[in-house]
Amino acid sequence: MPEADGTVSEHHHRHRRRRTKRTGLGAADVGRTVFWIMVALSLASMAFSAHRMRLASLMAGPLLIGVPVQEVRYLRGEPQSITPDGKVWTYPEGPGAQGTVRFGADGQVEEIACMQVESVAAGCSEPMGVALGTSEDRLVNRLGPATSERYQAGGKQMVFADLGLIFEMREFKVVGIRKIRRSGKLSFLPRLAWNMLP
């Protein structure tokens, strides 16, 4: 408040300075805000990755492990062929690829597979971004080390039991993708941590 001679009192000047300090953001406030924004973004990224990995561990395309025959017919239509025992249905997946759905004794899906049948193939579902033709290095970089590996004539199987995925490999490339029941409800969480690494 101006005094009689037109000068501003020292008390008023200090009070104004104090009010300015309170309304402005200090460096510490900006640092805390940025920190919490980064934490929120990291948690959102982890939640998105966990959701993708959970879906990859449960589904192959539109099908879930454990669904009944009627739901497969509804989602995929009539199969191209059915084995005599009725347990394996075959579907065309795309150019150069063939899909199979295998049913268990209970009449529910126990395995969904997509295999390369020609030199170039496409059309299979791509769990966690792994498609037919993906190199073994890229597969391991994407999902981490396999739970187990089984060598067979002309290739090997890389088994990711925690995700319920088996990749058929030939000459260091994915030539088939099989979806089976995963080993546990939250078994994919350690692999999620691997997936979050840069």
Overview of this protein structure:
By secondary structure, the chain is an alpha+beta fold. It has five helices and ten strands. The model has no long low-confidence stretch (mean pLDDT 81).
SSE order and pairing:
Blueprint: H1 10-23, H2 27-58, E1 59-60, E2 63-64, H3 69-76, E3 81-82, E4 88-94, E5 97-103, E6 109-116, H4 136-143, E7 148-152, E8 155-160, E9 165-170, E10 173-180, H5 189-196
Antiparallel strand pairs: 1-2, 3-4, 4-5, 5-6, 6-10, 7-8, 8-9, 9-10
Helix pairs in contact: 2-5
Order of helices and strands: HHEEHEEEEHEEEEH
Instruction: Decide which structural class fits the backbone.
Output: alpha+beta
Could you say how many structural domains there are in total? 1
**Number of E strands:** 10
Average pLDDT reading:
81
Distance between the termini: 59 Å
Strand content: 25-35%
Helix content: 25-40%
Poorly predicted regions are none
Q: Compute the gyration radius: what is it?
A: 29 Å
Count of helical regions: 5
Walk across the major sheet and give the strand order: 3-4-5-6-10-9-8-7
The description of the largest β-sheet is: 8 strands, antiparallel
Shape: elongated
Task: List the main descriptive attributes of the protein structure presented here.
single chain; 198 residues; two-stranded antiparallel ribbon
Short overview:
The chain is an alpha+beta fold and 198 residues long. It has five helices and ten strands.
